[in-house]
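Field log, afternoon session.

UNIT: design team B
ACTIVITY: writing a sequence onto a fixed backbone
BACKBONE:
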C-alpha cells in the first residue's frame, strides 16, 4: 500500500510550489487540485448555485486520487487534498452562505463515508504564511480563486481546528515566509522527516 502526504494551508500559501519542489528532490506520485480541469470551478466562481456541485466534484476527485495512490507503490504528494477540501473550503462556503445546511450535511456525509473507507494521510505538511503575503499572492495569481482575501482568517481557523484533532507527530508545520520561493531550506527538512517516519 502506498503512503500519502498532504500539503495543506491557506489559499496562496504555496502548496503547489512546495509540492513541485519536493518532486524535484525525490520521486513521488503526484495529485494536484486541477483547477482548470474541474467542470464546476469556473461556473461556481460566477454563480454560487454551483457550490454544491463543485464541492461534491472535488471530494469525489480527491477520494479517487487517494484510492489510486493507496493501490500504488511509493509515496504520493497531494496539493491540498480531501480533508482540506472539506474542513477548509466546504466549511468556508457554508459560512459564506454558498451552501445551505442540507447541502453542507450532504458534503459532510460523503466526506465521512470516504474517510471510513480510506485512512487519513500518513503525514500532513501544514504550510503557513502571513496575511500580507497571502493577499499579495492571491492578487498576482492567474487562476480561478473562489476564496477571497477577506476569507483568509476564517479559512485558516477552520484548518487549525481540524489539525488540532490529529496526531501532532504526523504534522510538520512550515512557515513559507521564512523560506525562498523554491523552499530550498524546507525541502531537506521535510524529506528527512519522511525518511525517519518510513514514508520514503
Amino acid at each position: 500500500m502506498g503512503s500519502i502526504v498532504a500539503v495543506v494551508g491557506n489559499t496562496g500559501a504555496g502548496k503547489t510550489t512546495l509540492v513541485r519542489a519536493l518532486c524535484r528532490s525525490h520521486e513521488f506520485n503526484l495529485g494536484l487540485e486541477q483547477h482548470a480541469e474541474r467542470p464546476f470551478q469556473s461556473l461556481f466562481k460566477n454563480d454560487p448555485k454551483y457550490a454544491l456541485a463543485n464541492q461534491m466534484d472535488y471530494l469525489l476527485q480527491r477520494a479517487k486520487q487517494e484510492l489510486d495512490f493507496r493501490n500504488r507503490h511509493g509515496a504520493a504528494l497531494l496539493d491540498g487534498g480531501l480533508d482540506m477540501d472539506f474542513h477548509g473550503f466546504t466549511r468556508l462556503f457554508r459560512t459564506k452562505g454558498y451552501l445551505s445546511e442540507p447541502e453542507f450535511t450532504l458534503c459532510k456525509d460523503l466526506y465521512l463515508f470516504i474517510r471510513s473507507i480510506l485512512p487519513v494521510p500518513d503525514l500532513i505538511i501544514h504550510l503557513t504564511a502571513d496575511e500580507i503575503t497571502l493577499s499579495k499572492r492571491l492578487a498576482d495569481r492567474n487562476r480561478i480563486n473562489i476564496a477571497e482575501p477577506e476569507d483568509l482568517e476564517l479559512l485558516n481557523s477552520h484548518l487549525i481546528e481540524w489539525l488540532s484533532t490529529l496526531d501532532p507527530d504526523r504534522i510538520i508545520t512550515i512557515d513559507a515566509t521564512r523560506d525562498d520561493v523554491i523552499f530550498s531550506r524546507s525541502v531537506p527538512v521535510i524529506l528527512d522527516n519522511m525518511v525517519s517516519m518510513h514514508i520514503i
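LOG NOTE: The chain has a mean pLDDT of 93.
NEXT ACTIVITY: expression trials, pending approval
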